[in-house]
Amino acid sequence: MKKKFLIILSVTLILFMQINAKHIEANSAIVDESTVKLRILETTDIHSYLLDYNYEKKKKTIEFGYNRVASLIVQAKKEQRNTLLFDVGDVIKGSPLAEYVASSPMFYSTDIHPAYKSMNLMGYDAATVGNHEFNFGLDFLLNTLMGADFPYTNANIYVDDRNGYEQDDIHFFQPYLLLDKMVVAEKGKMENLKVGVIGLITPITQEWDKEHFKDKLIIKNMRKTAEEIIPQMKKEGADLIIALVHAGLYSDQDYWPKSGNNVRDISKVEGIDVILYGHSHGIFPVKGEKGPKGVNHEKGLINGKPAVQAGNWGNHLGIIDLTLRKKKGKWVIADSKSTAKPIIRIIKKKKISIVSPMPQIEYILSRYQHDTLEYMNSKDLLNHLD
């Protein structure tokens, strides 16, 4: 009788433990799951058009200017508490103000470039370089970047060691970043999101600025580079990988090989989750537009991956809204919406401003603008700008 009782007790305990284990497992799954709304913001191809001023027409404008898109950044951050802000290159060359800065010795020693004085107000998380960053030479570029309060990354620019072996090539910039971002989930729970950021640039830059690259730097294929580095980023714990790509949807016409050196090819790299791009001064997505195979303007996807391109000179702000879900310890993109938000609207063929310029930027740039206009009066600049 006693033996029978012990057998029944043992069976009961086993059943209880199995049921309890399943209950704990179910509860763990519930606890593990989490939903986060994350907004990713992009500026690109500012070209030092920092103020809403048309230098050619010598008057203010509502059509472009970093001081205007900065106000959109402020609005976008207020609308969503979890945000990241990135720039995709071509900051320090293009406008008469940029030419004035490059001609002034003080910017090689003591002063911060006015572009970074402006951008430092906005809280950028990271940026990558564009081809025009190299126009004034490497010394000017490196000295200028020291004024940025945010890190730069690029993976496919290497030091030219001229030894013929790729295996020992050294990156010129930090090839990728891992940003620890504390985010608030929908139920108020704090989550840590490890965001990987990789920068890439069109290799034609090496041809366009030969005098600054020769025997110093080389640029490798974008896709091949990304495919080599993304696995390492994953290995180091990246939950979400964002590619900052200074290249267009299509490869530059004058460059060969074209394969692997455009955004469509980068979108096919396994492990890249989101693409912010620039260079071609285009806008993506465009409402009502139909793209080539794999390009979905309606959903803002390129080969199934959220992407955005924010025009140029501060005329648009790129916005990607992600819904992230954590399942079994891994974050996945459950939904996304991409928007290139303009600073103006066209109503009955009339251009209407929808945002005011940011006064703080106007204030800190007033001296530089005055000096730029004086500089213009002594130089024939407008015929020499990109």
Question: What does this molecule look like?
Answer:
The chain has 386 residues and is α/β, with parallel strands linked by helices. It has a single domain, classed as Purple Acid Phosphatase, chain A, domain 2 (4-Layer Sandwich), CATH 3.60.21.10. The chain is 29% helix and 27% strand. It has 10 helices and 19 strands. The strands form 5 sheets. Strands 7, 8, 10, 11, 12, 13, 14 and 15 form an 8-stranded mixed beta sheet that branches. Strands 5-4-1-16-17 form a 5-stranded mixed beta sheet. A hairpin with a 2-residue loop joins strand 16 and strand 17 (330-342). The termini are far apart. Residues 5-9 and 21-31 have low confidence and may be disordered.
Core attributes:
about 375 residues, alpha/beta, Purple Acid Phosphatase, chain A, domain 2, five-stranded mixed beta sheet, 10 helices, globular, Calcineurin-like_PHP, hydrolase
Runs in which pLDDT lies below 50 for 5 or more consecutive residues are: 5-9, 21-31
Return the CATH class: Alpha Beta
- Biggest beta sheet summary: 8 strands, mixed
What is the CA-based Rg, rounded?
Answer: 25 Å
Number of structural domains: 1
State mean pLDDT (0 to 100 scale).
Answer: 90
Succession of helices and strands: HEEEHEHHEHEEEHHEHEHEEEEEEEEEH
Helix/strand-derived class? Answer: alpha/beta
Distance between the termini: 97 Å
Describe the SSE topology.
Elements: H1 2-32, E1 34-43, E2 53-54, E3 59-60, H2 66-79, E4 83-87, H3 96-103, H4 114-119, E5 126-127, H5 138-145, E6 157-159, E7 176-184, E8 190-201, H6 205-208, H7 210-213, E9 217-219, H8 222-235, E10 240-246, H9 263-266, E11 274-277, E12 283-284, E13 295-296, E14 301-302, E15 305-310, E16 316-327, E17 330-342, E18 344-347, E19 350-353, H10 359-378
Parallel strand pairs: 1-4, 4-5, 8-10, 10-11, 11-15
Antiparallel strand pairs: 1-16, 2-3, 6-9, 7-8, 12-15, 13-14, 14-15, 16-17, 18-19
